[in-house]
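Hey, can you fold this?
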Amino acid sequence: MGFLLLGPEEIQDLVSMAEAIDAVEKGYAGGHEYPVINAPRRRVHSPAGVRISNFPGGVHDMGVIGAATRADRVVQLEGGENQEYAYREHPIHVLNDSNTGHLLALVIGEPVEKTLGYTSLVALRTAATSGVAFKYMVRDNARVAGVFGSGGQAANQLLALLSVRPGIKKVKVYSRDPDNRLNFARKYAQKFDVEITPVDHPDDVIKGSDAIVCATNTNVELFDGNLLEPGQHVTGIIGGNVQLVQGGFLKKARREIDNRTVERADVIVTNLKESVISEKQGDLYEPIEQGIITLDDIIDLGELPLGLKKGRNNDAEITYHKNNNGTAASEIAVAMLVYEKAKAAGRGTMMDLIDPEALREQFTQ
């Protein structure tokens, strides 16, 4: 027996955004059909602020079950409105055959989109998850996108949106640093073959946009939900940081979307409703606590590809996807895709292991 060991340098140019979206869609659909194959993200924290995030689960349609582990250290920036990562370790994905239990691979490193390369940790699987929601929630006739953020997450999110809505030809981008938004516009207008305009005020991102993507490190609301127009879609990608607040490492629970946006949304989708409650994720947990919505008003992402619920019922609806956190449905789906492509390309190192049954027999003789 043996398994394939893949390192960071061997997984950088294998997966397209469209392929990742398809894999993640399988993951969430399968997880909704058979819920016990996935569990919510679990996090633990050391007294020094090091956080371990664990993602157990699998995608049986891809023949895989396993776990992903990520380690980082989060710090709060001055003023408390943003947080950043003082250190982030390579993630580790353990892939087992979901039919036999055999160890298939150990993937060390961040899976990335092959045309973008490394831009930010978790950028590919986060954007691919948004891509599933974009597919079912953004109007088919969408032509204009608005983007908050100018980093690697924003680039991947925009690529995911363009992958499922190629009719979008105009993009507006805002971030607090004028140079960053200008550089983003110059770089990705050429790369994505779209017109990207940096704007000077966050309200300009909303006006006239068909899809609005929030991809920042903020801990506070980005815009006033009263500005939203009929037919718009909003995606936010922050999760929760309640344990960091409880541990005294951060002062404020994360918000990205205000209550008015949640109140006005005709359709609300999140990756996994259970995590909204277990992690007290502010964008939805606080409106639930305040009676603005109930948990029953929220749709699980896996319901959309199965046709159990609709992400949009007409072109006038305002829709909102809270891409609230990764699960194995995305982590393991993308890692399995990387493994399959790396194996086909002859990459990685096969590691021999004694059969566990043979080892047990040795000790029982």
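Oh, and this one too while you're at it.
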Amino acid sequence: MKAIILSAGRGSRLLPLTETRPKCLLPVGGTTVLGRQLDTLEAAGVAEAVVVTGFMTALVEEEVAARNGPMRVTPFFNPFFQIADNLASCWMARAHMNGDFLLINGDTLFEAALLRDVLASPAQPIQVTIDRKAAYDDDDMKVTLDGARLTAIGKTLYHADAESIGMLRFMGEGPALYREKLEQMMRTGDGVSSWFLKAIDAIASTTGKVAAFSIEGRRWNELDTVEDFNALNAHFRDA
């Protein structure tokens, strides 16, 4: 299994913390956001990781080069990170989507047990990892479900059954389905400015081949704001 991590962004909502480093290199619990992601993936037996970089790519490349574990980690620079959103990052990295893989947001942190659950779950062409809570806000990546099948995903959905945590798994025909949809969407007027999950929404609505997998009860965090950063480090100090 391969992992592709989308870490090209600066994290402007985390300023001034991201004045001199990208979001993925912010310190968390004795390492960095990216370091913790890679450590967890490596411990779970993931053989290879591709890190899509952008803002201050040299710093990320240095972090990757300093690793000496068994997992092969390759940086992949997106030179258009300032003008393109992460659907374009996925499109540029599509050559790495040539087999089963995980696609992970660069600001999603997850415990090892959560990752093991995802890796051990039944094979599906495309699987979106979800969690549930009492209410959802405008910033949540909301999903609607028909049983275990995902029917729609997006921040502007009126109704929500759950939220995406920013970890997807592609198996079997899933990688080809996603690559094909990326190619189609990058030929449209808003492809460059689209979020990568817009392609998942389109596949879900036309093929029905997107499943949802719940990790309710497992720990994960999304790092978007300075408040998120402070809460996350407080957790590791208290752990």
